[in-house]
Amino acid sequence: MPKTSKPEEDAINVAAPPGFNAEAIPIHEVCAGDKKVAPEFLAPQGLRQRLQSPPEWQPEITDENRHVIAADIIARRQAVGKVTRAAVLIPLLLKEDGLSVLLTQRTNHLRDHAGQISFPGGRMDPEDLSPNDTALRESQEEIGLDPQRVEIIGHLPQYLTVSGYSVTPVVGLVQPQAEYVLDEFEVADIFEVPLNFLLDPANHQVRLWQSEQGGRRFYSMPYEGRFIWGATAGMLRNLYHLLKV
User: What pTM does this model have?
Assistant: First the structure.
């Protein structure tokens, strides 16, 4: 993603207002009654099979996606020559006690999604031949993840963000490293969350933010003091929808 703020971009960045505290937004509902993912799809082989030969399924269109489309954010960025394609890696760590998801905490000074929890990734460079290249390159730059440790097993549908990007989530099985080298400009911290926690609908909260433009819903998945929400939670919801079928 962009590493510096550019004044000419400010007019087309309509993310949450400065000081917005997503965690303070009331919980509207919890998805505890939704269908659970079968245990075999939370294991490496089941995930490979499902992502490489997916059944018919319906991705979820979040209010963030609808807002991006209604406000024509991506087209407006393209009209002024801005990059709109991006990719992230959903790193599924192969652990003895089950798969875990490696997540990053973004630094507070970044222009887009400052301080939020995200997957490693960013905008596509001209040299990148595919979203896979972008996701692996950005993961190496941001957290020092060795691309040789990643087995890419599939992709999720593109996710539209209010910062003006069409993001391809790249799903990979990852052999854990002894240590990770963080890009101090972009990444404040990294941490792991069990995949079975993130894909359990009982942990999916729907929060309703009321603003002058009306109500907007977003997902959150709090975990041990970490507040996972927004685009990251939206992409995880799509992984959930694919695996629950």
Answer: 0.90
